[in-house]
Amino acid sequence: MDGERSVAKVEPFVKAKKLSVPVLLDTNSDVARIYYATTVPFTVIIDSKGEIVYSHSGYKKGDEIQLKEKLVEILGAVL
To answer: Cystine design at 54: which of 14, 25, 45, 64 (Cβ 3.0–4.6 Å)?
Structure first.
């Protein structure tokens, strides 16, 4: 889902926000096809076995609570 315009904005954004996490781009939509991502944002959590344990399309207020609860369940810790 990344196009030329969005890809060019990634590096400056990462530097400005001082992000220390890997930022991956899917310029050919290969990953989007694998996980059937058709909307943005699309969230997927993959466990240590490579299994999809959570996926969600779109965003509405409150979704972040459900995502946090799922992460706590998976990781067994309070985030």
So the answer is: 45
Residue carrying the six token digits 């059937």: 36
The whole-angstrom separation of Cα 79 and Cα 27 is: 31
Domain interval for residue 3: 1-34
Cα separation, 35 vs 26, whole angstroms: 12
Q: Are residues 55 and 20 in the same domain?
A: no
Q: How far is CA 45 from the centre of its chain?
A: 8
Task: Name every residue whose Cβ is closer than 8 Å to that of residue 79 and which is 6 or more positions away in sequence.
Answer: 68, 71, 72
Q: What average pLDDT does this structure show over 3-24?
A: 90
pLDDT of amino acid 1: 67
> Do 26 and 53 fall into the same domain?
no
pLDDT in tens, 45-71: 988 888 898 999 999 999 999 999 999
